[in-house]
């Protein structure tokens, strides 16, 4: 039985690490086991150092949120208190827990007769009860401030490192003498730090605020970790650093817009979101797919007779990430009930909903 199971697994493993797919002609994985300058060539065992580093990042995050983010939040007027508690009522609580959190008109009228409450009071109770399950703004602010700080710092480090790298100015250098491209200390630290951060997000997602897009973000982090790990093991690190920096440039802008939203600086939030939207579109739907993916295919296909699939996979993911929100008919409703979701289109919906709410014809719930 074990032997029978090893057959398909061996076949899958051999296909996954096919030298014909990943490496140029007449190059094997054994060739990369030899010595090289600096940190040598990337090895799979280097990935193991990510896990203690991810735990360290998570510990630093806890200290940051407690001693830096929280005082900042309190200083700008975010209160350290939970939402308004709904008045205890066994009948309404049973309906809320067992039947629906959003009762329709018919149910509201029935509850009104049963409790001798007017409909507006019951609607107010359900609204307070829904808000009661939401985490306080202070907690959300601290989480976003941590992500903003890391994204900004890693982006600045990436720009500083890439500025002196030849492949930043000439993308063709990504494949010069590939795969015999030794690691430098700066490149190694950049890659491992990015990978460790996303592993820490994977761990902390189970302890952070539970959002409606939990599964989407879980898959996002999983795919990101897979792409970074594969590109490192296959020594595609030069191209990988460019892609990571290109994606990091919009992340800290999104978190900055969320911070402004939590602090109730609406104009600043709207301005940051417009900037974020422009940067996101230009970098992920402009520069990346049209400059990188096409060039990767034209250069890399000549060396391996296979397209550089991860580049196209990520480009498709960016396109889907941008379009998925507006294609959902209830996106605006989700943004109003949970405006702090992770993916960008939810914030877009919150922005447009804010504009609607400020219009003279808007009638509040």
Automatic annotation (TrEMBL):
Which InterPro entries is this protein grouped with? HD (IPR001356), Homeodomain-like_sf (IPR009057), Lag1/Lac1-like (IPR016439), TLC-dom (IPR006634)
Q: Which Pfam families match?
A: Homeodomain, TRAM_LAG1_CLN8
- Record key words, sorted: DNA-binding, Endoplasmic reticulum, Homeobox, Lipid biosynthesis, Lipid metabolism, Membrane, Nucleus, Transferase, Transmembrane, Transmembrane helix
Q: What is the reaction catalyzed?
A: sphinganine + octadecanoyl-CoA = N-(octadecanoyl)-sphinganine + CoA + H(+)
Location within or outside the cell: Endoplasmic reticulum membrane; Nucleus
Extract the GO molecular function terms from the UniProt entry.
DNA binding; sphingosine N-acyltransferase activity
Q: In which pathway does it act?
A: Sphingolipid metabolism; Lipid metabolism; sphingolipid metabolism
The protein's matches in CDD domains, at most eight in alphabetical order, are given as: homeodomain (cd00086)
Q: Where is the Homeobox domain?
A: 92-136
Its record classes its membrane topology as: Multi-pass membrane protein
Transmembrane domains' residue ranges: 46-64, 148-168, 188-207, 214-233, 272-300
Q: Which residues form the signal peptide?
A: none
The Gene Ontology biological process terms listed for this entry are: ceramide biosynthetic process
Q: What is one GO cellular-component annotation here?
A: nucleus
In this entry, the residue ranges of the DNA-binding region are 94-137
By its UniProt entry, which SUPFAM superfamilies does this protein fall under? Answer: Homeodomain-like
- Main localization is endoplasmic reticulum
Is Hydrolase among the key words of this record?
A: no
Question: What is the top-level taxon of the source organism?
Answer: Eukaryota
Kindly give the PANTHER family that the UniProt entry links to this protein.
CERAMIDE SYNTHASE 5, LONGEVITY ASSURANCE FACTOR 1 LAG1
The protein here is known as Ceramide synthase 5
Organism for this UniProt entry: Rhinopithecus roxellana (Golden snub-nosed monkey)
Name of encoding gene: CERS5
């Amino acid at each position: 039985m074990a032997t029978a199971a090893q057959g398909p697994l061996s076949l899958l493993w051999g296909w996954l690490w096919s030298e014909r797919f990943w490496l140029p002609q007449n190059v094997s994985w054994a060739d990369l086991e030899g010595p090289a300058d600096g940190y040598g060539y990337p090895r799979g065992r280097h990935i193991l150092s990510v896990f203690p580093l991810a735990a360290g990042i998570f510990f630093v995050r806890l200290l940051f949120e407690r001693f830096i983010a929280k005082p900042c939040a309190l200083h700008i007027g975010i209160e350290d208190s939970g939402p308004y508690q709904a008045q205890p009522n066994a009948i309404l609580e049973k309906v809320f827990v067992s039947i629906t959190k959003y009762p329709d008109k018919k149910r509201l009228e029935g509850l009104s007769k049963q409790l001798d409450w007017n409909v507006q009071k019951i609607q107010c109770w359900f609204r307070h009860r829904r808000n009661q399950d939401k985490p306080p703004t202070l907690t959300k602010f601290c989480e976003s401030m941590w992500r903003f700080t890391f994204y900004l710092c890693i982006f600045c480090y990436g720009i500083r490192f890439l500025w002196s790298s030849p492949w930043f100015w000439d993308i063709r250098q990504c494949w010069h003498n590939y795969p015999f491209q030794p690691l430098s200390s700066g490149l190694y630290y950049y890659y491992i730090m990015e990978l460790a951060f996303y592993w820490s997000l994977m761990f902390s997602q189970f302890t952070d605020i539970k959002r409606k897009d939990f599964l989407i973000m879980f898959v996002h982090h999983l795919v990101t970790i897979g792409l970074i790990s594969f590109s490192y093991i296959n020594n595609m690190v030069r191209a990988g650093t460019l892609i990571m920096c290109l994606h990091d440039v919009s992340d800290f802008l999104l978190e900055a817009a969320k911070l402004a939203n939590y602090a109730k600086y609406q104009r600043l939030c709207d301005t940051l979101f417009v900037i974020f939207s422009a940067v996101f579109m230009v970098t992920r739907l402009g520069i990346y797919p049209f400059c990188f993916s096409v060039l990767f295919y034209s250069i890399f296909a000549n060396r391996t007779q296979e397209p550089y699939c991860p580049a196209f996979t990520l480009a498709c993911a960016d396109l889907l990430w941008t379009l998925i929100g507006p294609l959902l008919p209830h996106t605006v409703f989700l943004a109003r009930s949970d405006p702090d979701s992770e993916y960008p289109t939810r914030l877009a919906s919150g922005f447009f909903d804010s504009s609607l709410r400020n219009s003279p014809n808007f009638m509040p719930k």
